[in-house]
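Q: Sequence in, structure out?
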Amino acid sequence: MRIISMASTIRPSLLGCVSASPRFPVVSRNLSRSTLSFSHVTQSKLLTLRRSVSCLGVAESGNASTAATEEDLLKWVKDDNRRMLHVVYRVGDLDRTIKFYTECLGMKLLRKRDIPEEKYTNAFLGYGPEDSHFVIELTYNYGVDKYDIGAGFGHFGIAVDDVAKTVELIKAKGGKVTREPGAVKGGKTVIAFIEDPDGYKFELLERGPTPEPLCQVMLRVGDLDRSIKFYEKAFGMELLRTRDNPEYKYTIAMMGYGPEDKTAVLELTYNYGVTEYDKGNAYAQIAIGTDDVYKTAEAVKLFGGKITREPGPLPGISTKITACLDPDGWKSVFVDNVDFLKELE
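A: Exactly. Output:
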């Protein structure tokens, strides 16, 4: 560290002891009179040295603190009690969508809430109670009957015992089938694709009995490695598996808080060479439970996410949340676990 001409004569053991203190001249007693005489070293040079060394100490201390904070947050995120609670998106006709999901997909209407002062209504549907299952939260905004789904959102996944029978039922109810039942490309799992009345795609996967039939949310991302690292560190998810399909030029990564056959997972899809997507205005977000929204926000910031709503209670119901964006701009909301259960009561 060369600050002034005499810096090379300062011994390493002494450098760590130097501080911006009025007693700084004591250093001169350990150096040659010809080198550190005050007649040759101006007061301004001394001040420059003191400031530089002081700043160096702060920087080193800050780096150590950051490393410790990162390590602590990583451990806390991994130990946090997290679960995917629900996925939120907008529809143009709430009654029509509820009918389709209950009659064609076998879901149950769990609850509805109307917020007239905000001019919207929510409906929660799924295959089991909200305190233990991943569910759908539909949002109807008064007077809005159509939305743009965009190219970034992919599909939802539903596990069923018999894909062919489910497809026949959907056809009989007037539903739209976009891919007939058959083995997935490059695999053996039988799948089919359908669309709901608003154009949202659902992948039907033939699977044995599972505690979580609503099992996937697929989103497209522009940098798969970046997304995997973000969801591992900031969200505490586990990378369950990846699959590359060079023939069709895409790669997927399955991430979640448990095995695919027992919990809902996030399916991230990277299409070769595509780095950005139009997200439209239909799909909204995923909600995830946490024991501490404040620490969650710290982790999201530290590991590359953007906080769009600072942690704290919602007006009126006191449920603590924080909202964030991942590196691709996909939104998630973290909800305090205790407050969420109180809200269900």
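The CA atoms of residues 256 and 265 lie 5 Å apart.
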